Structures are given as C-alpha cells and as structure tokens.
Amino acid sequence: MKILISSRNEDKIKEIKSIIQQDPIELFSALDFPGLPEIDEDADSLLGNALKKAKILTLETGIACVADDTGLFIDALNGNPGVYSARFAGDNCSYKDNRHKVLSEMHNKTDRNARFITVAVLMFPDEEYICAEGCLEGQITNEEIGDKGFGYDPIFWVSSLGTTLAEISLQEKNLISHRSKAFLDLRNKLKEYLA
Ligand code: IMP
To answer: How remote is the CA of residue 69 from the centroid of ligand 1, in Å?
Structure first.
C-alpha cells in the first residue's frame, strides 16, 4: 500500500514517517511529486482543512494521502487563534508577528490556559477516510522563552516539563506533542483498518 504525506516540510515529513512507517506501507511525500497544487487552508475547522488537503491530493495522485492541520486554542481569547493560527497576525505574517499578537491580546489576562490540537486524516482513493486527534495542554507565557522549535513554541508553557516548547529538543517534543499523539492514534487506526 502506498501513502502520500501531504507536507513539503522536511522536519514534519521525517516526524510523520517515523511514526506511521510499518509493513506493508510505502511512504512518499509531496516532495516526491513536483507539480502538486498548493492548497489554501481556508476551511472553518482543523478537520475541514485536513480533509480538503487529503482529498485534493488523493484525487490528483490516485494514492492514499495523509494530511494534518494544527491550531493553538486559547481559552481567554475564546479559542483563538484556533484554525487561523498560521495567519493570526495577517496574510504573509511571520511566526514572530503571530506570537506578538497573542502576547499583546493576552496582556493582563489571568486565565492563561491553552492547548495545541492536531487533526490528522488518511484518505483512501475511494474517498473513505480515517481521522485522529492529538492535544497538548499548556499555558501562554508573558514573554518569549527559548529559541528552539517554531511557531508559538516560545510562548507555550508545559507545566509537566517546567519549560516552554522552545526550550526542549525536537526528540523531547515528539514524545509529548499534539502532532505525535494524533499520528500515533492514526497509526493504530490504520493497523485496525488493514487488519
Ligand atoms: P500547520 O497546520 O501544522 O501548518 O500549523 C498551523 C500553524 O500553527 C503554524 O503556522 C504554526 O504557527 C502553528 N503550529 C503548528 N504546530 C505547532 C507547534 O508544534 N508548535 C508551535 N506552533 C505550531
């Protein structure tokens, strides 16, 4: 069975491959298929975006495709930036712009609780699909701490670690992250599906 990973991000591809690799699966990524379309993540839910990406690429290539979408949901901001996490500070904004916007909107807020949620979808060529979700609970800091990771990592505090996600290695992050939980769950569901 062939599976295409929708991402072009080498780190994400490596992480996803290491989790879902199993016999008899042959894994590819969007980097192996030059010319695949760029897909706008304009749905109003993480599942909607993951399904949209998986469906377009499955139909385009004729092989099963795995796609995911992640958002940071902050209680005091009514769940924002949520599905808009990539462009919270506007189109073409940087990770830093997004973090500044969160820190400024969180100024003086006492409830700092937040969570990362990842939804992962595996769609088969007949358009049947399986999906899974992973979540990591944490708190928004008052300032940036740490220089590892990406995105909102420097402002996301994990109490069980006593650090932000930007202070730990990728290997440590993969042990607890929303994304790895979603893909581990997807791997288990795929095992059941193949059985
Ligand atoms: P994507 O769906 O993985 O592209 O994630 C959407 C946006 O969420 C990214 O542009 C990042 O800003 C943010 N994000 C996703 N995963 C993480 C993470 O593990 N740490 C910090 N920010 C993340």
So the answer is: 8
Q: What single letter denotes the amino acid at residue 9?
A: N
In the numeric block, which tokens belong to residue 172? Answer: 């440590």
pLDDT digits (tens, 9 = 90+) for 39-76: 999 999 999 999 999 999 999 999 999 999 999 999 99
The residues pairing with 163 across neighbouring beta strands, listed in sequence order, are 158
Specify the pTM: 0.95
**Cis-peptide into 37, omega within 30 deg:** no
Q: Is 69 a catalytic residue?
A: yes
Topology, domain 2-194: Maf protein (3.90.950)
d(CA 161, CA 117): 18
Q: Are strands 64-74 and 156-158 parallel, antiparallel or unpaired?
A: unpaired
Residue identifier of the C-alpha nearest atom 3 of ligand 1: 70
**Could you report the per-residue pLDDT of 129-168, keeping only the tens digit for each?**
999 999 999 999 999 999 999 999 999 999 999 999 999 9
